[in-house]
């Protein structure tokens, strides 16, 4: 069987033949190491994303920053701990605790990405089979994977992207999913 025949056969097989390049999002929304967490939080909200690769001045992948990293830092500074389950601070909270809370918020806002980002980033190649992408996400309990082509960041795949690919491949209608 020739390479063209193999490629045609794989293409007809569906999700098993899909590669990272088939579902990745590109261009990638990235942040620089010196970006403040306040700016990152605003970017996440504006772009409706929950994480982004961190790149150096040359555009090389050096880490990843996620909502989890922001929450973890806020826990370290005891910012989130003062809030109740509704997101409000109790009226009975002592003033000195509220002052510490505000100070923690300001500290988080000004903290730089490089101080809290994850440096050891799992990545996949554009040619990585989708099954392997999913397996890696599950094994490492991660929500997104940067996609590289010859060492250069060219895309990103989230768990949502994987689900979208399967739904589209199987031609599942949205109405069927809500029943």
Description of the molecule:
The chain is of the alpha/beta class and 179 residues long. The protein has a single domain, classed as CBS-domain. It contains eight helices and six strands, in the order ααβαββααβαββαα. A three-stranded mixed sheet has the order 1-2-3. A three-stranded mixed sheet has the order 4-5-6. A hairpin with a 2-residue loop joins strand 5 (144-149) and strand 6. The longest helix is centred in the middle third of the chain and has 16 residues, at 95-110. The termini are far apart. The model is unreliable at 5-10 (pLDDT under 50).
| Overall 3D form | elongated
Instruction: Tally the structural domains.
Output: 1
CATH names the topology as CBS-domain
Give the fraction of residues assigned to helices: 40-55%
Query: Could you tell me the number of beta strands?
Result: 6
């Amino acid at each position: 069987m020739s390479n063209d025949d193999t490629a045609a056969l794989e293409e007809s097989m569906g999700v098993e033949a899909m590669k990272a390049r088939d579902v990745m999002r590109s261009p990638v929304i990235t942040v620089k190491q010196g970006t403040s967490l306040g700016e990152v939080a605003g970017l996440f909200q504006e772009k409706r994303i929950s994480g982004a690769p961190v790149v150096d001045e040359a555009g090389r992948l050096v880490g990843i920053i996620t909502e989890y990293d922001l929450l973890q830092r806020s826990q370290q500074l005891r910012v989130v701990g003062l809030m109740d389950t509704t997101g409000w601070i109790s009226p009975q909270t002592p003033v000195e605790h509220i002052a510490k809370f505000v100070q923690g918020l300001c500290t988080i806002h000004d903290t730089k990405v490089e101080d809290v980002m994850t440096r050891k980033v799992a990545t996949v190649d554009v040619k990585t089979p989708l099954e392997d992408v999913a397996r890696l996400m599950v094994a490492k309990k991660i929500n997104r994977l940067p996609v590289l082509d010859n060492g250069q960041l060219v895309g990103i795949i989230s768990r949502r992207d994987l689900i979208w690919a399967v739904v589209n491949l199987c031609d599942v209608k949205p109405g069927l999913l809500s029943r």
